[in-house]
Amino acid sequence: MRAIDLIVKKRNGEVLRKEEIEYFIRNYVEGVIPDYQMAALCMAIYFQGMNADEVADLTMAMARSGEMVDLSPIQGIKVDKHSTGGVADTATLVLGPLVAAAGVPVAKMSGRGLGHTGGTIDKLESIPGFRTTLSREAFIRQVNEIKLAVVGQSGNLVPADKKIYALRDVTGTVPSLPLIASSIMSKKIAAGADKIVLDVKTGSGAFMKNKEDAFKLARVMVKIGAEVGKQTIALVTNMDQPLGTAIGNALEMEEAILTLQGKNQGDLRALCLDTGAQMLMLAHRVKKIEEGQELLTKLLDSGAALEKFADMIEAQGGDRNVVENPALLPQANNRQQIKANRDGFIASINAEMLGIAAMTLGAGREHKEAKIDLAVGIKIHVRKGERVHEGQPLLTLFYNEQEKMEQALKILPPVFQFSENPIEPEPLIYGLV
After folding, report:
1. Quick one: how far is CA 364 from the chain centroid?
2. Distant-in-sequence contacts of 265-272, Cβ < 8 A, 24+ apart
3. pLDDT of 89-144, one tens digit each?
4. CA distance to 10, 184, 189, 225, 431, per residue, from 231 (Å)
5. What does DSSP say about strands 377-380 and 387-388: parallel, antiparallel, or unpaired?
6. Distance from C-alpha of 170 to C-alpha of 431, rounded to nearest angstrom
7. Given this model, what pLDDT does residue 114 score?
8. Separation between Cα atoms, residue 313 and residue 310, nearest integer Å
9. Using CA atoms, how far apart are residues 131 and 22, in angstroms rounded to an integer?
10. pTM, two decimal places
11. Active-site residue flag, 201
12. Is 168 a catalytic residue?
């Protein structure tokens, strides 16, 4: 078997066998197959696509390229949730404690932010003392004891994906459904979950800009789950405006705490109730979605979910007092308000531009090695469809460096589009696959 023969085979639109895919991935990770041949295969896949069996085989070959996490010592059905990435998407920080408070174990491995999308691990590190690294034994023991742990991904989890993604990023092969789907699902499968709930974002702040592509991706990933014996469902959700009202690590942590306190009633809460209900269904905790939503609403409003979050913070070395006093989180030194320059209805909010502006302030990374400022970011004061008046605050920028704030200001003018007429509201959830 030779790499060149497999590249030509896929270039010509033929189907790769399981053993051929395994051979290519194994030898690429071991350094036998060079980057340029993997880049050629990725380009062939980009143009020719893959059938369902090929995508499932590619996913499992990538998942098995490194450590496969065994969560069987954890009692109960483990349901993992994954978002394809968005802006002001703090759902994991709310969902984890909420679902755990309902008695369903949440053993989550999360990543760091890159580009305009935030990372759960960065947000958790804004809590003083919080440890995002646990031994496998401590991780399992904590989930069995309090039903909840969130840690950073192991360095040896799906090394094939790390190498391939870096290559796709510089070879124009990122937007390929088989490659996107196998990248996401290989990490979920290697992380050991029994069942998977996917949140596939679509809109200005998402990777998938239109609904049709988002539904295609959702269907491919759900099919991968079925092919490899992991029950998987996908929600296709609206990211045409930021999900929450805060962008930036400590600011998003504060918003998650306010949501767990029952004080926030917006889209973030609504999506967490819907997604959480799906997780409870997969875990056989409830029999109907409405039953799950009702239970989770009670756990939010009673403070039980907030208490569960405090338990996790304490178990992982953090200061549990942040759930009562978010001012203990890192604070930016300076603030700058952006105000409306006219009356009208908010016709659109470009979520991606807001994410890039927050990254420019220092809240995100342009490359993996970049350092972030946990305190800085943006708060959004209006929603799409809202009527505003000239001089009304639209945004507040939280910053520590004047130069970065001035750079961010140059990005912001096109973020808001106005209309003279009322705007029809769009659904938060477009559908379920």
Report:
1. 14
2. 266/383, 267/243, 267/428, 268/88, 268/90, 268/91, 268/94, 268/243, 268/244, 269/94, 269/300, 270/428, 271/91, 271/199, 271/237, 271/243, 271/428, 271/429, 272/91, 272/94, 272/95, 272/98, 272/296
3. 999 999 999 999 999 999 998 876 655 566 888 899 999 999 999 998 999 999 99
4. 29, 15, 11, 6, 18
5. unpaired
6. 33
7. 57
8. 5
9. 36
10. 0.90
11. no
12. yes
Residue 13, helix vs strand vs coil: coil
Per residue in 374-410, pLDDT (tens digit) is 999 999 999 999 999 999 999 999 999 999 999 999 9
Among residues 81, 116, 123, 187, the one annotated as catalytic is 187
CA angle 97, 280, 321 (to 5 degrees): 5
- Which distant-in-sequence residues (6+ apart) come within 8 Å of 136 by Cβ? 69
Question: Active-site residue 186, yes or no?
Answer: no
Residue 148 φ then ψ, to 5°: -150, 130
Q: Would residue 11 show up in a list of annotated catalytic residues for this protein?
A: no
Report strand pairing: 246-247 vs 377-380.
Answer: antiparallel
Q: What is the mean pLDDT of residues 188-214?
A: 91
Catalytic residue, chosen from 161, 194, 199, 274, is 161
Which residue ranges form the domains of the chain, and what is each CATH number? 3-49 (1.20.970.10), 79-155+163-323 (3.40.1030.10), 330-419 (3.90.1170.30)
Q: Which residue in the list 82, 108, 116, 147 is annotated as catalytic?
A: 82
What is the distance between the terminal CA atoms of the chain, rounded to a whole angstrom?
A: 38
Residue 218: CB atoms within 10 A of its CB come to 26
Annotated catalytic residue within 183, 186, 204, 348: 183
Bridge partners (DSSP) of residue 145 are none
Paired sense of beta strands 393-399 and 106-110, if any = unpaired
Active site residue 187: yes
**Mean residue pLDDT across the chain:** 92
DSSP 125-183: TTSTT------HHHHHHHHHHHSEEEEEPPTTS-HHHHHHHHHHHTTT-SS-HHHHHHH
Q: What is the 3-state secondary structure (H, E, C) of 244-282?
A: CCEECHHHHHHHHHHHHCCCCCCHHHHHHHHHHHHHHHH
Residue 250 — φ and ψ, nearest 5°? -65, -35
Closest of 411, 423, 402 to residue 353, by C-alpha: 411
Percent of the chain at pLDDT exceeding 90? 80
The backbone torsions φ and ψ at residue 388, rounded to the nearest 5 degrees and listed phi first, read -125, 160
- Measuring CA to CA, which residue among 144, 128, 103 is closest to residue 298? 103
Cβ count near 424 (within 10 Å): 6
Give me the DSSP letters along 348-405: EE-HHHHHHHHHHHTSS-SSTT----TT-EEEE---TT-EE-TT-EEEEEEES-HHHH
